[in-house]
Each structure stands twice: as structure tokens, then as C-alpha cells.
Amino acid sequence: MTVGVRHDDLRRRNRALVLSALRAAEQHSRTAIAGLTGLSNSTISAITSSMIEEGVLVELKGGENGLARRGRPQVALALNPELASVVAVVLTLNHLSATIIDYAGNVVDDEIERLSTQAMDREALIGAVIGCVRRVVDRQREKGRRPSRIALAVQGITSSDSSSMLWSPITPQQNTPFAPALAAAFGIPATVENDCNMIAVALKWRDPKRYRDDFFAVMLSDGIGMGLMTKGQLFSGTHSSGGEFGHMIHIPDGALCRCGRRGCIEAYAGNYALMRNASGGTEDDRPAADFSQAEIQKLADAARAAGGPERAAFVKAGRAIGFGLGSLFALFDPAPVAIVGPGALAFDILEEPIRDAIARTAGGQHSGAISFEAEPNEMPLIRQGSAMTALTRVDAEIVAPGPVTEQVLKGRKVA
Amino acid sequence: MTVGVRHDDLRRRNRALVLSALRAAEQHSRTAIAGLTGLSNSTISAITSSMIEEGVLVELKGGENGLARRGRPQVALALNPELASVVAVVLTLNHLSATIIDYAGNVVDDEIERLSTQAMDREALIGAVIGCVRRVVDRQREKGRRPSRIALAVQGITSSDSSSMLWSPITPQQNTPFAPALAAAFGIPATVENDCNMIAVALKWRDPKRYRDDFFAVMLSDGIGMGLMTKGQLFSGTHSSGGEFGHMIHIPDGALCRCGRRGCIEAYAGNYALMRNASGGTEDDRPAADFSQAEIQKLADAARAAGGPERAAFVKAGRAIGFGLGSLFALFDPAPVAIVGPGALAFDILEEPIRDAIARTAGGQHSGAISFEAEPNEMPLIRQGSAMTALTRVDAEIVAPGPVTEQVLKGRKVA
DNA sequence: CGAGATTTTTTCGGAACCCGAAATAAAATG
DNA sequence: CATTTTATTTCGGGTTCCGAAAAAATCTCG
């Protein structure tokens, strides 16, 4: 049973509304906020003035917006970048980065590191992440600032409570409890999310016109991942991050997949599958180690140049992706698709077999109308998605009215 | 941008909470409602007393609940069955029924009709539905009652705004606008929903222990349908009812499906596919007409008796369903499954191949732990799901505080 | 340059709502 | 029949939102 709406929940909700309006648009006048939220001017006035007093919002004085209209000019309000900051951490195969983002969403500092994730045991892996975070956090401390939240994005399956990485291709370890470890090490809340989900979140912030309520973000890399937005909400499984597009079945009992099963989409479209098929390997060959982006690039060039086995490998991959998308469309209805990651570099070769396969499915009746967009560089998206996820959670804490804000404020500049 | 929470929304929400608590449990004392909703006794007292005055709730006097405890006895509150009623209409292949349900959820009257849906044009089909509804509505009118809403459940794909049947196996017609037609004919709101979605809704009301937040209802009949509950919400596509499990791809370019494409799960597990495979037909054979439940029963008996092509047909069907469920589990995570419809009669033969296939997928790692339940009789579920959907919408109208209830009350007994 | 005109923002009074505490109601107990 | 126990209602207080009026800040035009 959902719990009743108390009186103070009301204020909390409306504060949240104001905050999210500002997070989506950098700046707004009070009148604009009133229009967007449907609340009265007097209410917005009350809410914003208390938020300014709390240091959550700032007035942007002297903000000449060009159009000098008659009447009292609007005063732009914006999130106060000084209020808080978060750490966005990204862990992928052999790569680790930590970025400090201020409350307004600006990058303040970052730290990048290479490591051998597959050779590390659980403690070493957790330790490496903590170490990387500690370096940026220490630099913040020197400036008298303390981040208020950590968001980690990982390749692999995470738990739906955002506490653990359940499984990942970057390490043989399972159930790695990153969130509690980070929380304990730094004394602030931490979360772990799936990288493709973060990509979907980032796309929504970046291009809300195209990626609004419903879209698919498919990541083509060593493995095949997906982030999925439905009805404006990030889709997730009931226990895990879910949306494991790469492990939907393309061909029952088909090619051997990295996950040990057979016939997964990934076993036809992942980098190792491309290599295996291009080099005349059989479907029973064990998935090889991971490939560099350059190798995939070379493969794509070969495919473009000639129609040989290289091209056939990409056609097979496109078919697997296309039929998979067709099945997704049968469930969710067609929606825009973003192809992200190294595989996007070969999208010119993949598009035709993908569209052809979709057209052969019931879900892809109007396959021509489906919009595809390719974005090879996934890292900035993952980082931005993590940051926005963390900031949104900070917003939720701030929203509680009155001096409850102190928790967050603890990290503020001592000024 | 979500719109702000106004002051009166608060009361509306809390009234809705009270109503849904009572709808879920038939009866509750005020104290129990306070406990369930988290609202204070005084608030519940205020809300319930106004709802009693409006005629929405009634006190069940003299309700001896056996356990005579010390202290002032609780007064049970319940929904007032007299407040309103709805029409639940079910349209499937060659079968049409309309049922009057009172506000408390009791069946008051019904009307069943056979017809040849596939031979009828659009007007005839709409006319038949209106005619069937008119008969039960007229009988209500004689008693001075007027239903306040119509909910139609159909086999096939419906639009996500619940206005039209976009496609259905029961007729060659497309985009049949049932809801506006019914609304115009009777002057009350009407909706069209997918039958399998209604089954999922009904399961949740019937057995909330087992079917709570996440589960799959798979209907095995001429076609293969699915209703899906995720996070306590009915899953639907972005434009249509979605969840077209039967048209996910099992074998790319495989057996010919009723939908004209190839390789859909339905092309292996629908009744026509069972028949085709059992009788030595090829995968290119055009899907035959629909089969009676008796014929399928006979086929299942033959499969049980011997291991011949009949059995092989069921194994093929189970494989298709199992791999499909495996793909679903990769997306949504494993959850309980209800097998509904005629195919449930053969669940004893299907279960093994289903479980075997699931176990071969990444999504079905713990396939032994997945709970299956078979329920051959789908009609009562569809009807109940429709009724609850309609009643829930009536609740939403009633929830608006004050005399806004009049709209609904127009249909009340003139007393 | 100053008196409107115009637009934004704040202030004020009123109404609705929820909550906790106290009061009232309706039993069972002894 | 007084006491105990539990359920429900009543009352006073506090919070919130809204609309209207007031105040503030700028532009326009004579």
C-alpha cells in the first residue's frame, strides 16, 4: 500500500519540481518556473526565496538576455554550483576514471587510470576504485570542499538497488559490493549503475527533443549492452539492471557466447564474434580476449573494401541486432535507437542488414521510419549519465524542506 | 514538465488511497485504513465521513467478525455497491459477452452471444458489440440504474490510449474504434484493452501473494499473447498495448506465422502451429483456420499416449516458448509465469521443454526456481480484469472531492 | 526628465488540509 | 455498575497553496 500524502510532502514535491525545472534548463525566472510547474507566483516566490536562503539557488544578476522588454526585468535563477559536488566514476575494461562535478553539472576535476581489471581480485578492484576516487576527493579537500555523493558506472549487470555489480565481463569476480565499500571509505552515499543505463540517461539530458520518453541505446563493443527509456523512466529489471539485450536469444543453441550459453545476440555481434566470423572460426570457438578499437576499425575497413568474410561477419552481426530489435519492438513498440560505442564506427556497414532484419519482424512494420543515430564515443555519455544520476539524488535530498539540507551542506566550502 | 501539486490534489490522493485500500480488501475499519495508508485517524475520519455522505462508502453494521475483543468494536466500511456499475465486455473469436458489475465488484447480470467475427465488416462488428451491451444496459435501465462506464477486452493489439483495436486475429478489420463508438452509443466513457493485459490485472487482484509486482501471464491459444506486470504496473507499449510475446522472433526466417512474417514464437506454439507440425505439414504451409479446444485436447492426448509427431509438435512449441521466456528474463529478470488459456491443458507436456529451453538461456539461470502455474479457463480472468480496470477508473473519478461525484451519480438508482 | 505603462516579484488575507491531543462513544470485564 | 479498553470524532494549531493587491523595476512617450 502506497503511503498517504502528508502535508509537508506537498512542499517537498513542489520544491523538487522547481529544482528539476532548473536542472533541465540551467536558468529560469520565477515567472517562467511558475508557468512550467503550474504553481502560482506566490508559491514559487516562497519556495525560491527559501531555497536561495539555503544556498541551493542563486540569482544571476546582470544577466542581460538581449531582449530588453518593457516592464520589470526577470531575474534569472540558477542552481548554485557551490552548493555541493559529486564524483562520477566509470569502470570499464582496463580503464578507470573519476570526475568531480559541481552542483550545476560542470566538470571540476578528473583523474584517469589504466589497470588490468581481469587480473585483479575483488579487493584489488575495489581498492583501485577507492584509490582513484581518493585522489580527486583529496584534491577537493585541499580546497575545502567535500563531495556529497559517488556514482559508479560499470560495464556489466548491477543490482536493482544500485549496491553491487552482480556480473561483469571486465572481471571474473561476481557480486562485487562497490557501493557499500565506497560509502564506507568516504562516508558519503554511493551507487553502482550499469553503463548503458547511464548512456540512456545522458542521451535524455543531451538531446531531449530526440530522446524523450521512449528510446533504445544499444552499445556495440566487446559485449552488447542496452539502456532503455520507457515512458520517460529508465527501464530496469526487477532484481538487476536488466535490459540485457545482448543475451536475448538470436539462434537457439547457436554460436557460443562469452556468457557460456549459446545463441545470444552477443555471440553474433560482439567484437569477438565479428573476429571469429571474419577469420573463419567456428561457432564453437571459445570467445577470444577483447580487441582494441583499432582492430575493429581495421576489420570494418576490410569489410568496406571487399565483400569477403569480413563483410559477411558484419552482415551476421547486423542480422542478429536487427532481429533482436524486432523482438524488442514487438514488446515495447518501435522507438528511436542510438547505436553507441566502437561498433558505431561500422554503422554504415551494419545499417542495411539491421534494417533488413527488422523489416522481417512483426515489430518492425515501418522499419524505414525508425530513426538510428550512431555515436562512437561512449565514455563522455557514461560519465554524464552517472553525474546526472548522482545530482538528481542530491536534488532529492535537498528537496526535504527546511534545515534538513545540512547533510548536503557539510561538504560545502567553509568560506 | 510534471505539473505542481496543488492543495486539493492532496485530498484527492488521500481519498484515492482510502478507496484503493477498500477495493483491495472488501472491508476495513477506519483504524485499519489509517494503519494501511499511514494517515492519521482524524484524517481518515474526515475522509470517510464525507465519502459516506456522498454514498461512496457504507458502514457494514452488525458485521460480527467473530473475535469479540474488549473495547469499542470497529465499524467495517465497504464500497457501496449501489453507487455505480460498469459493463465488462469481452470480444474474442466468435464470442461476445457483456457483464454488469456493481461498484463493489459483484456480477449483477450478463449476456453471452456467438457470432462470426471473421465474416463481419467493421460496422457489423461494432454494431454487434453495441447490441450486446445494449441488452444488458436496457435491463439495468428497467431497474432504474445506469452503468457509468464500459470496458471492452479484445484479443489483439489495442492502442495505448485505450480507444481502438489496432489489429486482431478475430477479424481482418484494422483500427476499429470501439471506444468512441461505444461512448457515443451510450453516452458514457468506454475503453478497449488487450485481453492478456486484463488477465494480468485479474491475476493481481485474485492472488496478490503470488502475483504482486512482477509476473508474466502467457496465453496459449490460437495465437500467443502475454500480459506483463512490472513494478506493480501493467506493462504496455508506447503506442500500443505492446507485450507481443507471440511475435518475438524464435527462429529468424523460420516458420510462417499468421501475421505474415516468419519465425515468430507463435508460428511454433500457436494452435495452428501445433496442428501443422503434428500433421507433418511444412513450415511454409499457410496457417490454417482456428481450432476448437476439443481438437487441441485430442492432440495433447495423442502426444501423451505416444512419442510420435504429436509429441514432437508440443516439444517444438515448448522450446519456442522457453527460449522466448529466456529472452524476456534477460530483459526483465525472472519472475513467476502464469500459463493461461487452452494451451494450459497441455502444460504437463509443455513444461519440460519450456524449462529445458529456459535453462539454455542467460536469463534463465535458475530455471528450476521459476514458478509456473497453469489456468486453462481464461474467460473469467479477462472479464474480471476488465471489470477491475473499469472500476478503478470510476474510483479515479469519484476521488475528486466534493460534489464532482455527480457525474457518476447520474446513473444511480432514483430511489 | 517625469508621469504613466508594463511586467515581475513580494506581501497579505483566506481557505483547505493534515496532525496530535483531548473528548466522546461503545463495548467487555469483574 | 464502575473500570478498562479500543474506536472514532472533535478541536486547536500549524503548514501550504492561491488570488488579489501592493511594491519594485524598468521602458515609453510627451
What is the radius of gyration of chain A? 23 Å
Number of helices of chain A: 13
**Quaternary organization:** homodimer
Instruction: Say how many strands of chain A there are.
Output: 15
Strand order of the largest sheet of chain A: 6-5-4-7-10
Please, what is the average pLDDT of chain A?
91
Residue ranges of chain A: pLDDT <50 for 5 or more in a row? 403-415
Tell me about the largest β-sheet of chain A: 5 strands, mixed
Helix residue percentage of chain A: 40-55%
List the helices and strands and how they pair.
The structure is a homodimer of 415-residue chains.
Chain A (H helix, E strand, L loop, with lengths): L6 H19 L1 E3 H8 L3 H14 L2 E4 L15 E4 L5 E8 L2 E8 L4 E8 L7 H21 L7 E5 L2 E2 L6 E3 L10 H9 L3 E5 H12 L8 E6 L3 E7 L2 E2 L31 H4 L1 H8 L14 H13 L3 H24 L4 E4 L6 H13 L12 E4 L3 H21 L6 H4 L6
Parallel strand pairs in A: 4-7, 7-10, 11-14, 14-15
Antiparallel strand pairs in A: 1-3, 2-3, 4-5, 5-6, 8-9, 11-12, 12-13
The first copy, chain A, binds a DNA duplex (30 and 30 nucleotides) through helix 1 and helix 3.
